[in-house]
């Protein structure tokens, strides 16, 4: 079973790129982030025509997450994280598909930092950590995927060079500490586990020719609980998607479970 994550950076403007990728990669489950569209304007007809059922949590102009399933209808479990009833951001969607639990995550960026946006990022991260603890202990396979907006380390496998990113929220000690505490629950980082020390970037900024220079970051992650990790077969990045006409600034990442 192939489970993928893709920050589409606007599903309306990148719909053709999304449909191309679904046809080529054929993921059984595809989790999307940064839809930037309302629930009412989600392109369900096009998604269904591509052979996928969908559940989504939209927000006009910002955020937004979705779970797609090839030849099946995902069953929604949770929309939004617990812990803050006043949080209106569409950033978390949990569903059951093909016998496993999957969550599509769009963690706050947090820039500029310090400031209220960074405080919100850290508070949201704490809520994710609290909610993920029980999921990690589940007997059935659980996969938490998405744009975590965290570069795990300064190593070449995670970032081309940290020099110009030192003040960015994605590299701050507090962000990385939250990431490590999440993993410490028992989650397996599929990409890092199978490709240690290898540049496996998932994001290239539109500016400063970062795509052509392969000046990327690894910020889209696929985390597996113990039941899922036992079935880990392969993982990778569909980086060629980033090089197409009018692309997202992210490339899809995926994991295959036996």
Automatic annotation (TrEMBL):
All copies of domain Endonuclease/exonuclease/phosphatase, residue ranges: 4-250
Record carries keyword Calcium: no
Record-listed E.C. numbers: 3.1.11.2
CDD domains found in the cross-reference section: ExoIII-like_AP-endo
Highest taxon above the source species: Bacteria
Top EC group: hydrolase
Keyword terms: Hydrolase, Magnesium, Metal-binding
Cofactor: Mg(2+)
Xref: PROSITE patterns: AP_NUCLEASE_F1_4
Keyword Membrane: no
Pfam families (alphabetical): Exo_endo_phos (PF03372)
GO molecular function: double-stranded DNA 3'-5' DNA exonuclease activity
InterPro entries according to UniProt: AP_endonuc_1, Endo/exonu/phosph_ase_sf, Endo/exonuclease/phosphatase, ExoIII-like
Family matches, as NCBIfam families: exoDNase_III, xth
PANTHER family with a match to the protein in the record: EXODEOXYRIBONUCLEASE III
Entry's family note: Belongs to the DNA repair enzymes AP/ExoA family.
Name under which the protein is recorded: Exodeoxyribonuclease III
Organism: Pseudaquabacterium terrae
């Amino acid at each position: 079973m192939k489970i993928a994550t893709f920050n589409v950076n606007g599903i309306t403007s990148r719909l053709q790129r999304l449909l191309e990728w679904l046809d080529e990669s054929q993921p059984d489950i595809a989790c999307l982030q940064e839809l930037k569209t309302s629930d009412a304007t989600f392109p369900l007809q096009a998604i269904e025509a591509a052979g996928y059922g969908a559940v989504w949590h939209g927000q006009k102009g910002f955020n937004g997450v979705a779970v797609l399933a090839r030849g099946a209808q995902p069953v929604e479990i949770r929309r939004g994280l617990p812990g803050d009833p006043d949080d209106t951001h569409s950033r978390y969607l949990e569903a059951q598909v093909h016998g496993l639990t999957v969550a599509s995550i769009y963690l706050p960026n947090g820039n500029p930092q310090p400031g209220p946006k960074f405080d919100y990022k850290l508070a949201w991260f704490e809520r994710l950590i609290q909610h993920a603890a029980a999921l990690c202990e589940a007997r059935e396979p659980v996969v938490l995927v998405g744009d975590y907006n965290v570069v795990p380390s300064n190593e070449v496998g995670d970032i081309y060079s940290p020099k110009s990113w030192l003040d960015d929220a994605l590299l701050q000690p507090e962000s990385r500490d939250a990431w490590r505490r999440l993993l410490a629950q028992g989650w397996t980082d599929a990409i890092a586990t199978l490709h240690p020390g290898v540049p496996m970037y998932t994001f290239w900024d539109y500016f400063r020719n970062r795509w052509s220079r392969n000046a990327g970051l690894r910020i889209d992650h696929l985390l597996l609980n113990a039941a899922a990790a036992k079935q880990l077969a392969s993982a990778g990045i569909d980086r060629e998607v980033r090089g197409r006409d009018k692309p997202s600034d992210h490339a899809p990442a995926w994991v295959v479970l036996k």
